[in-house]
Amino acid sequence: SSVPAVKPQSKADLKKILNLLNSTNIFRQLIEPCSTFNAAWIRTVFHDCGGGSVLDNTGGLDGSLQFELSRTENAGLAPTIGFFQSLVEPGVTLSDIIALGGVASVAFCGGPLIDYHPGRVDATVANPTGRVPSATSNLQFLRSLSARLGLYPSEQVALFQGVHTFGGAHAANSPEVTNQTFQSFDGTPTVYEISYRRKALTKITSNPSLNIFKVIKEGKSILGTDHVSFGDPILKGYIDTYAHDKDLFSKNFVAAFTKCINLNQNQHLDSVILVPPTGTAAPHFKTADDKVYDVSRRGYEAPGTQPEHDTPCDPSSTQSSRCSLEHGYVETCSEKTRTWTKYKDTVLEALPAGWECHDSHKGHYLVPPAAPAKAYAKYRRSESEEEVYGEPAAKKKRSVDEF
Ligand code: HEM
């Protein structure tokens, strides 16, 4: 029998996914109007796709970030992942949520619209280590990262430099970059672009420019990677150009961002169907080792939970984050010190009263107060596969073996 190596998952349910963008949905409310969440979610996209490579077809935008929260470079991303995990349900993968969070966050901050195709398959293990850059990565590292993501130099600059028009650095996440609680990269962390014209009327009277590139050109960036990029003649050329050509920047930014959100997923987009074992109404999936797991609740049942807050914690566990004993905090298992490190749960704080933090083998996830999301409630009550999968009758009977 041919069981797919990648865990089969439900066919992407576009309706459920787009429901996240409903103006009444908390998902959308967190990022419109543009807030600090937009930057955090855009960063989340990169820290997931950045572990992938088109050169060897490993990793990608695959939700593996949930197993990588203990890595130093991912400090501060646990609250976002915990929230996103609470939205996972049949037809809605973590990776599709991460990608949607990214494109929607860009759009709601005044950035360009980026095509979004659902259907990503979630990874069941972490991506290789050592692929996501730090602020002190050298040019050679940036080049190889760029090659892994399949970016041209023009796209590399648009993405690695230009994206920092959003957000900034936090001492809690990046002590090597800033000692401030929050330090914006370009002075306008929730704005896609700002022109010279608006910032300094006297200097430039035409050609709106992107603020972040001005910061880099003036040598004022807080990221070492911006300085080394500006020192490279080819990359400098793009930094200079984008500072005066927002249309070209936007075009290449969209191209690069698209490569990141689709990384190693193109062959799956909107093409993966979850097939329940014959005779069960409850959704299950079979893994490569032929175990059948129940997915009738959010998250998946599998071993791997770290039971205690004791030290040392196990950074290689599938549970790299957990709820803190202190309300409003989450902890990640630091790969360096092998201890639980506490972070303020900014997402939990922003959600309406009643949300709770729960632990699972895939890390902590945030649970809504009383009734879960509408689509999910319907799904739980359902006895029929028809309702669960929304598939025509003929398709319902197919088994895992056919794939
Ligand atoms: C050379 C590559 C890159 C380096 C060295 C880098 C480094 C950093 C660092 C050190 C931070 C501060 C994190 C914190 O302290 O909270 C940061 C923030 C951020 N990064 Fe990057 N980054 C790179 C590429 C990217 C890419 C490709 C994206 C998105 C596609 C991205 C999106 C962001 C965003 C939006 C923030 C702001 C987060 C916030 O304000 O919460 N970065 N980056």
TrEMBL record:
InterPro entries: Ccp1-like, Haem_peroxidase, Haem_peroxidase_sf, Peroxidase_I. Residues 300-320, 383-403 are annotated as: Disordered. Pfam families: peroxidase (PF00141). Residues 92-259 form the Plant heme peroxidase family profile domain. Destroys radicals which are normally produced within the cells and which are toxic to biological systems. Its EC number is 1.11.1.-. This is Peroxidase. The lineage of its organism: Eukaryota, Fungi, Fungi incertae sedis, Chytridiomycota, Chytridiomycota incertae sedis. Belongs to the peroxidase family. Cytochrome c peroxidase subfamily. It comes from Blyttiomyces helicus. One of its GO terms (biological process) is cellular response to oxidative stress. GO terms for molecular function: heme binding; metal ion binding; peroxidase activity. Keywords: Heme, Iron, Metal-binding, Oxidoreductase, Peroxidase, Signal.
